[in-house]
Write a structure and sequence with these properties.
This protein is α+β, with helices and mostly antiparallel strands and about 775 residues long. It folds into three domains: about 210 residues, Alpha-Beta Complex (Aldehyde Oxidoreductase, domain 3), CATH 3.90.1170.50; about 350 residues, Aldehyde oxidase/xanthine dehydrogenase, molybdopterin binding domain (Aldehyde Oxidoreductase, domain 4), CATH 3.30.365.10; about 140 residues, Aldehyde oxidase/xanthine dehydrogenase, molybdopterin binding domain (Aldehyde Oxidoreductase, domain 4, 2-Layer Sandwich), CATH 3.30.365.10. Helices cover about 30% and strands about 25% of the residues. Helix 9 runs parallel beside helix 10, helix 15 crosses helix 16 and helix 17 crosses helix 18. The structure holds pteridine-2,4(1H,3H)-dione and dioxothiomolybdenum(VI) ion. Dioxothiomolybdenum(VI) ion binds next to loops.
């Protein structure tokens, strides 16, 4: 089935918040940002802004009727700054005017007076100074110290990855409209309508029941609207409430890029111990998460880093520590992968050093240590229906890994100027929100008397195709054509207490709720049909819009439309509400163990790259993947998700360079921040893993959204591989993104110590003495 949004998207006709019809009396709002990363707020002088024709109001924290607090996990984030400012770009005031242009111009005239305070910008510095947002967490399994003592080689190092701008096509946007009876309606470009509703109620001191948050579709989100759409919805709601008029707030691209949070930069120390045959026996890692100025979702993201630190590998003895470090940068937030990619990058770095120390290629260490059935993750969950080895072997066979490696080695012997490199990237990603409570969803189905059907769920369509998938599930369950079904907007008035559409689980959770609701309706209708046709309900089925008895069309025939009409006449309920909660998941924070994930998604990618040694430029030539999509709900959509996720991951690892200088984002425009374009997209081959049933999700499917992003990590290691073909003496380094600039500077790095130049002697550089990794935050010299 083709994606139901495709025709509108390809014609540019799909309406986003800014395209909705303007209500009468519409006003426009623009935020006034803090001019410094850290400071004491001395006062706000709005007189110059208020003097402009068309400016209606300038609102600050004192105008908030309820609580000035939008923190979801930890209450540490004001809607509008008061007392202090904690990051450059933090909203301090809101200008409301007759036009967007006027509001924007006036916002730049508001004088924010601050006394600057010294900012903290580095997560290691924050940790050393005790600037942590939550208590640090450690996952431990086995006896790590004993395992290190038994290891033949030990490698250790440091790995850093930078943040990433979401660059959703539709910037943050909201439209708030006061309605009759004291209701307030808000269109928001959010992944989390209930979160917005809850926070708006709190900020305005209202009951949630008087607030409706509604979403038609988002022009992309990628996690950037899981938590961070709320502030803009709340600001629009605040202005609408104060002024009694509709208010729209749409961030310009530049404001969006400089004011909103992004993927977290991480800095990490790692140590890995292996036996001489390449078996990983011990792994220790300390992750410093740069959380920015407020908690936002950082503690939850830290949880996913902890659970994914060993990726698809068996590590019997592990100690994984993560610090959530408060700095004076815009609060970093959810981004496709949610802390897992950063942790997996570190694991691949460790494997790279391990391969060096043992004088083998990375793939040998990787393949040897892949998870098998019954293995345990460091958080205690057992591996079920493991496909790590299966996807690796299928990829290696299908794409001819051995031959490729030989061909590349041969190429590199002859071509010293354009070396090629390869990396394999296995992925294992846990499906379920790590916060067990969030793993629930509801659906509300109405069948109208003409036989048409409307479905409301908690799922938010953001281009990922969740509505098409839900439509497919409903059509299959009811036995009617998709054309008779309509997916309604996502509204808190129709489906309440929704979890964000996130964690790759939108189709899993809402699809399952939809299936239950449709089954309820189908059962009621089958009983009506059985009564009408003098048959037993068990004999009756509905297929292709027709009632069948024992699989045959009865005479006279009974179609869906007439059956619905009969049901109505007989006063049978034609609506159903269903709730789904993921079974058998649990987690105990006291022991840091449990079964947090319903299941895991596996896959393997082979990434090939070519360098221009003189220029430092490169191409990612080809990525071949075997991906486990279960029994795909929609192969075209799933292929699109795999390709899109991969390209986004490659962007993060190679060209997207988020640069902060003294707390100021220096990459806050599309002229200074480069994302992948059509020309940089590699040749991609996606093969879905065969025989991949999944009893844990709706119709045997598997979640698709996030896992493929992590294939992109392979791009970093493929480039490193090519660099080392050109410079075999080059010490590997792990500082993502690997921009052309980094490649060029990397190739010019001094040689490593002579002892390590000879591969056979490499072991001499490693030590069997476990050198202590810092358990507590330590101060490090500025780099
Ligand atoms: N959001 C969230 C997520 O709140 N919890 C999660 O575990 C998660 N995982 C991935 C992406 N978003
Ligand atoms: Mo999330 S990173 O919004 O699934």
């Amino acid at each position: 089935m083709r994606g139901i949004d495709v025709p509108a998207h390809t014609r540019g006709a799909a309406p986003f918040v800014d395209d909705l019809p303007a209500p009468a009396g519409l006003l426009h709002a623009a935020p006034v940002p803090s001019p410094v990363p850290h400071g004491r707020l001395l006062g706000i002088d709005a007189s110059r802004a208020l003097a402009i024709d068309g400016v209606v109001a300038v609102l600050d924290a004192s105008h908030i009727p309820g609580e000035n607090q939008i923190g979801a996990i930890i209450q540490d984030e004001p809607l509008l700054a008061s007392g202090e400012v904690h990051y450059l770009g933090q909203p301090v005031a809101l200008v409301v005017a007759g036009s967007r242009w006027t509001a924007h111009q006036a916002a730049s005239l508001v004088d924010v007076r601050v006394e600057e305070l010294p900012p903290i910008l580095d997560p290691r510095e924050a940790a050393a100074r005790g600037s942590l947002i939550t208590a640090s967490r450690t996952f431990a399994i086995g006896d790590t110290e004993a395992a290190f003592a038994s290891a033949d080689v030990i490698v250790e190092g440091r790995a850093d990855s930078a943040g990433q701008e979401h660059l959703y096509m539709e910037t943050q946007a909201a439209l708030a409209t006061p309605q009759a009876g004291g209701r307030l309606h808000i269109y928001s470009s959010t992944q989390a309508p209930t979160a917005a509703q809850r926070i708006i109620a709190k900020v305005l001191d209202r009951q949630m029941s008087s607030i409706e948050v509604e979403v038609h579709r988002l022009g992309g989100a990628f996690g950037g609207k899981e938590d961070q759409a709320t502030a803009w919805a709340a600001l629009a709601a605040l202005a609408a409430e104060r002024l009694g008029r509709p208010v729209k707030l749409v961030l310009g691209r530049h404001d969006d890029m400089r004011m909103t949070g992004k993927r977290h930069p991480y800095s990490s120390d790692f140590r890995m111990g292996l036996l001489a045959d390449g078996t990983i026996v011990a792994y220790e890692v300390v992750l410093y998460q740069n959380a920015g100025a407020a908690a936002d979702l950082s503690p939850a993201i830290l949880g996913r880093s902890l659970t994914h630190a060993t990726n698809a590998y068996l590590v019997p003895n592990a100690r994984i520590t993560a610090h959530c470090c408060r700095t004076n940068l815009p609060p970093f937030t959810a981004f496709r992968g949610f802390g897992a990619p950063q942790a997996m990058f570190v694991m691949e770095a460790a494997i790279t050093l391990a391969a060096d120390a043992l004088g083998v290629r990375r793939e040998q260490i990787q393949r040897r240590n892949l998870l098998s059935e019954g293995d345990r993750f460091p958080y205690g969950q057992q591996v079920e229906r493991a496909a790590a080895r299966r996807s690796w072997d299928e990829a290696a066979t299908r794409f001819g890994l051995e031959a490729l490696l030989a061909e590349i080695a041969e190429h590199n012997r002859h071509d010293r100027l354009r070396p090629r490199g390869l990396a394999v990237m296995p992925v294992c990603f846990g499906i379920s929100f790590t916060n067990t409570t969030l793993n629930q969803a509801s659906a509300l189905i109405h069948v109208y008397t003409d036989g048409s059907v409307a479905i409301s769920t908690a799922a938010v369509e953001m281009g990922q195709g969740v509505n098409t998938k839900i439509l497919g599930i409903a059509a299959a369950t009811l036995g009617i054509a998709p054309e008779r079904l309509r997916i309604e907007s996502t509204s808190t008035a129709r489906v309440a207490n929704t979890s964000p559409t996130a964690a790759s689980s939108g189709a899993d959770l809402n699809g399952a709720a939809t299936e239950i609701a449709c089954t309820t309706i189908a059962e009621r209708l089958r009983r009506v049909a059985a009564d009408e046709l003098k048959a037993e309900p068990e004999q009756v089925s509905i297929s292709g819009g027709e009632v069948l008895v024992g699989g045959e069309r009865p005479t006279p025939a009974l179609d869906w439309d007439r059956l619905v009409g009969l049901a109505y006449t007989r006063r049978v309920d034609l609506s159903a509400h269903a709730h789904f909660a993921t079974p058998s998941i649990h987690f105990d924070r006291a022991t840091e163990s449990g079964r947090p994930f319903s299941y895991h998604v596996f896959g393997t990618a082979i990434v090939e790259a070519t360098l221009d040694r003189l220029r430092g430029t490169y191409t990612i030539d080809r990525v071949s993947m075997v991906h486990d999509a279960g029994r795909s709900l929609n192969r075209v959509i799933d292929q699109g998700q795999v390709e899109g996720g991969l390209v986004q991951g490659i962007g993060w690892m190679t060209m997207e360079e988020l640069v902060y200088q003294d707390g100021r984002n220096r990459s806050d425009m599309l002229s200074t921040y480069k994302v992948p374009d059509l020309l940089s997209v590699p040749e991609m081959e996606v093969v879905f893993l065969s025989d991949a049933d999944n009893p844990a999700a709706v119709l045997q499917s598997k979640a698709i959204g996030e896992p493929p992003l992590m294939y992109g990590i392979g791009a970093y290691f493929a480039l490193l591989d090519a660099m080392r073909a050109a410079r075999p003496d080059l010490e590997p380094f792990f500082e993502a993104p690997m921009t052309p600039e980094r490649v060029l500077l990397g190739l010019a790095r001094p040689s490593r110590q002579p002892a390590a130049r000879d591969r056979a002697g490499a072991q001499a550089e490693t030590t069997t003495e476990p050198s202590p990794l810092p358990r507590e935050p330590v101060t490090t010299a500025a780099e």
